[in-house]
Amino acid sequence: MKKTIFYLILVFLTFSCINNVRSKYLSYSDYKNSTFRKQSWFPDFVSKDSYELSEIHNIETNNSFGKFQYSNSLYYDSVFQTKKEMTPITYSVFKSKVEKIKSPIKPDWFPTEPNLIKMQFYTYQFFYIAVDKSNMSIFFIITY
Question: 77 phi and psi, to 5 degrees?
Fold first, then answer.
């Protein structure tokens, strides 16, 4: 009986993860050399100073978690102030969107509440974005 339960759990975990796709790039040039399809899981304002780009998405639900670091704060300050589709949102709106995502499971590198609450939040196209200016990091999700 215990073996049967173990195998059922193993099969469930295997098939529940099969629809999740991960992408990781150490540099912007690695990211730019990837396919357009993989790049489309990132916001279009990712610039040449970006590094440590990561994302995981579920191909069935189209939900995604992503992040990247940056070094040019002036560029990103400008992006968040001037892009017409960039709309500030509250922490509670961002948090509710994150909680709505069941698959993929939130990755370990995605910030938790004590750190997340200190960030600035935006919606842009179909992205929900959290900006950590102190660590020069941008975190984002896609959810419908």
Answer: -60, -45
pTM of the model: 0.84
Give the whole-angstrom CA distance, residue 70 versus residue 88: 20
Strands 120-124 and 20-27: unpaired
* Neighbouring C-alpha atoms within 13 Å toward the C-beta of 86: 16
Residue-range domain boundaries for the chain: 21-142
Spell 93-102 as b/e; 16+ CB within 10 A means b: ebbebbeebe
Token pair listed for 39? 């790049």
> How does DSSP classify residue 89?
E
pLDDT tens digit sequence for 6-49: 444 544 444 445 789 899 999 999 998 876 556 678 999 999 99
